[in-house]
């Protein structure tokens, strides 16, 4: 898999993680600062949240590993087949524009110049 893809994913995830951590810390500080809850009172809630989070993150890890292994296999298979076949596969994807904006790679259409010359003669 291309390292830049992994870096892009992490660049998009880290701000979300940072925001969640900030919110969680702010809530705990608020509860303690107002005297609403102590560490001892919050402990069972932290444990319950930790257990639920652990299950969700385990599932997320499994999904990510599956997606990443699939992406890695696709890249490995494409490089084994050679760049020409990879190029053809990429062109077959829906919504992928043809190279050079569909200008037929600078080539003329077959027979277009020959037919015009015969018609004029």
Task: Describe it.
This protein is an all-alpha fold. Helices cover about 75% and strands about 0% of the residues. Mean pLDDT is about 75; it is low at about 105-110.
Topology diagram in text:
Layout: H1 3-33, H2 39-81, H3 83-92, H4 112-120
Ends: how far apart? Answer: 58 Å
**CA-based gyration radius:** 28 Å
Total number of helical segments? 4
Write down the overall geometry: elongated
Average residue pLDDT:
76
Percentage of residues assigned to helices: over 70%
Question: β content, as a range?
Answer: under 5%
Count every beta strand, where a strand is a DSSP E run of 2 or more residues: 0
The computed structural class is: mainly alpha
Main β-sheet description: none
Order of helices and strands: HHHH
Low-pLDDT stretches are: 103-112
Provide a short characterization of the protein structure:
This protein has 121 residues and is mainly α. The chain is built from 4 helices and no strands.
């Amino acid at each position: 898999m291309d390292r830049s893809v992994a870096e892009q994913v992490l660049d998009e995830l880290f701000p979300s993680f940072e925001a969640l951590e900030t919110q969680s810390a702010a809530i705990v500080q608020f509860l303690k600062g107002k005297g609403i809850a102590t560490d001892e009172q919050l402990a069972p809630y932290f444990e319950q949240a930790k257990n639920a989070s652990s299950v969700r993150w385990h599932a997320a890890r499994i999904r990510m590993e599956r997606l990443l292994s699939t992406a890695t296999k696709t890249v490995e298979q494409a490089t084994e087949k050679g760049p020409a076949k990879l190029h053809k596969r990429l062109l077959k994807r829906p919504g992928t524009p043809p190279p050079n904006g569909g200008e037929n790679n600078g080539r003329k259409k077959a027979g277009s110049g020959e037919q015009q010359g015969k018609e004029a003669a």
